[in-house]
Amino acid sequence: MAATRRDIMVAGAIGSVALCAGAGTLSAAPAPQAGRIVHHVFFWLADPGSQADRDSLIAGLRTLRDIPVIRDFKIGLAAPTEQRDVVDASFNVSELMEFDSVADQKLYQDHPIHLEFVDKCQHLWSKVIVYDMVTI
């Protein structure tokens, strides 16, 4: 049976819809929900040339994943992006967390796992800067 012009157009329309729906899966992660707290911490190592210290800090940060109020958690290093006046890539390690509320972020701050991390790892860094924001 030969395909009619209508059959070809319907198939094309269905294919276009499927392609558009699939394209959404290729995009970046969805934006955080409004009102969530994003906690971004930057660490400068006391001995920036020490791979062992960097690895120890990263291992310590990974223990924080067990704190239940954390909704999203990432650890990273300065990216090798274009050098520009507005980009500060001087830090050694960074962590990014997301919480449902300010109250949850406070629970994280006081959680025994976080307190243990600070106690065991604070000797590794010379400087820490924290940026907290609420999503809109």
A few lines on this structure:
With 136 residues, this protein is an alpha+beta fold. Helices cover 38% and strands 23% of the residues.
Give the helices and strands, then pairings.
Layout: H1 5-23, E1 37-45, H2 51-63, E2 72-76, E3 93-99, H3 102-110, H4 112-121, E4 125-134
Antiparallel strand pairs: 1-3, 1-4, 2-3
Helix count equals 4
Shape: globular
In order across it, which strands form the biggest sheet? 2-3-1-4
The name of the CATH topology is Alpha-Beta Plaits
Distance between the termini: 56 Å
Radius of gyration: 22 Å
Task: Specify the structural class.
Answer: alpha+beta
- Main beta sheet strand tally, sense and closure: 4 strands, antiparallel
β-strand percent reads 15-25%
Helix and strand succession? HEHEEHHE
The total number of structural domains is 1
Write up what this structure looks like.
By secondary structure, the protein is α+β, with helices and mostly antiparallel strands. It has a single domain, classed as Alpha-Beta Plaits. It has four helices and four strands, in the order αβαββααβ. A four-stranded antiparallel sheet has the order 2-3-1-4. The radius of gyration is 22 Å and the shape is globular.
